[in-house]
Amino acid sequence: MSVTLGEIRGLTESILKTLKKQGVTDTTALLDATRTRQRRKELAASTGLTTELLSQIARRADLTRVKGVGRVYCDLLEEVNVNTVMDLASQDAEALHPQLITVNVVRQFTQRPPSLEQIRDFVAQAKALPDLLEA
After folding, report:
1. Distance CA 88, CA 128 (A)
2. pLDDT tens digits, one per residue of 9-60
3. Are residues 119 and 97 in the same domain?
4. Same domain (yes/no): 52, 75
5. Total domain count for the chain?
6. What is the pTM of this model?
């Protein structure tokens, strides 16, 4: 499922305009444009953005492939070092859930943190998705 780039944390209007000029307007296009190290270098060269920033944005876009994971849950997952679909696929939902609740109590990302059932579903979805990002 593709979402607009405006839903990805860290994208300023300037970055959004720069990516749009390259035809990158949603997460599907972003993941395609940043799939490999070489593609990230090429996009960096054509946009003036750093490969580090592009990698960071791509990881956030990657997590949005999981239905139900949007900007807020991406932020929450990043806080516990779950940065990609493959990271999420390797998690134990029963161990991940209390970590997310603890982080949310401190950081207050959302009034409705994901339930254990949602986390189980997120992990199951992640396990079924292909790895799209080269390290």
Report:
1. 11
2. 889 999 999 999 999 999 999 999 999 999 999 999 999 999 999 999 999 9
3. yes
4. no
5. 2
6. 0.91
Both structure tokens of 58 = 């791509």
pLDDT in tens, 89-116: 999 999 999 999 999 999 999 999 999 9
Angstrom distances, CA of residue 84 to CA of 8, 105, 133: 14, 23, 8
**What separation in angstroms does the CA of 124 have from each of 66, 85, 90?**
9, 11, 10
Q: Give a yes or no: residue 109 inside a domain.
A: yes
Q: Which of 23, 46, 63 is the last residue of a domain?
A: 63
Containing structural domain, residue 86: 71-128
**Angstrom distance (rounded) from CA 100 to CA 3:** 23
